[in-house]
Design a protein that fits this description.
The protein is mainly alpha-helical. The protein folds into 2 domains: 85 residues, Orthogonal Bundle (Rna Polymerase Sigma Factor, Chain: A); 148 residues, Up-down Bundle (Butyryl-CoA Dehydrogenase, subunit A, domain 3). Helix content is 74%, strand content 0%. It is built from 14 helices and no strands. Helix 5 packs across helix 13 and helix 11 crosses helix 13. The protein is elongated. It starts with a helix and ends with a helix.
Length: 242
């Protein structure tokens, strides 16, 4: 159903007041999510997608599910925004390919040595210079949008409050297992990577603020963050395999 058709349908049901009441929730989630996305993502696009999520939530909410409407709507709003970002993926396929190549190299090296792979080792394994490796990290940093499970593990309040909505017991068990595996993988990141992930996703600092704390450039923070995400993907390959 198109946005116009959906709005007409819910409007006919007398939900204008509910839309206006929860419009600030859409805006709040949009700006919260925007802080974790590249500069090329426009907040207006997120808000538009979020409004469609809100309309869908109004249409489908069932009080018998046991969650408040705000919690249920928050999940639908954020999900709609993330779907829009994924549909509008601007990243060239070559960048995705190189990101997977780096993740595979990290996994190979760490399985072989039993310790974290260093950037110079990954670059050597790939047969490229360290500068070229850092360039790959810089390019791939703009394409890293965490999955729903990763956002929940990062402390997202809306997903965290309703992690069991619409899930069968086996799905919930699998989700909990993934979240535990992700938590363990984050805990075992190299110290600087773990710190940057914590500052970015838990403390919600931007790259410039993190750089000031660590006394490194914003671009270097971006590279380290990108390497951390690729390291996590390599260590969680059994969960994230396409």
């Amino acid at each position: 159903m198109s946005g116009v058709a959906m709005y007409t349908a819910v409007q006919a049901g007398g939900t204008d007041e509910r839309v206006m009441q929860h419009a600030p929730l859409v805006k709040r989630i949009a700006y919260h999510l925007l802080s974790r996305l590249p500069d090329s993502v426009q907040v207006d696009d997120l808000i538009q997608a979020g409004m469609l999520g809100l309309l869908e939530a109004i249409k489908n909410y069932d009080v018998s599910q046991g969650a408040s409407f705000e919690t249920y709507a928050g999940i639908r709003i954020r999900g709609s925004m993330l779907d829009e970002v994924r549909r509008s993926d601007w990243t060239p396929r070559s960048v995705h390919k190189k990101s997977r190549m780096v993740a595979d190299a990290i996994r190979t090296l760490e399985n072989k040595t039993g310790r974290e792979a260093k950037d110079v080792e990954v670059a050597e394994h790939l047969g490229i210079s360290l500068d070229e490796y850092n360039h790959i990290l810089q390019d791939s940093s703009s394409s890293h949008i965490f999955s729903v499970e990763e956002l929940a593990q990062a402390g997202d309040q809306y997903l965290d409050e309703a992690s069991s909505l619409d899930e069968e017991p086996i799905d919930l068990l699998s989700r909990e297992s993934f979240e535990q595996a992700l938590a363990n993988a984050i805990a075992n990141l190299p110290e600087r990577e773990r710190l940057i992930i914590s500052l970015y996703y838990d403390e919600e600092l931007n790259l410039r603020e993190i750089g000031e704390i660590l006394n490194i450039s914003e671009s270097r923070v971006s590279q380290i963050s990108s390497q951390a995400v690729l390291r996590l993907r390599s260590r969680l390959s059994e969960w994230t395999r396409d």
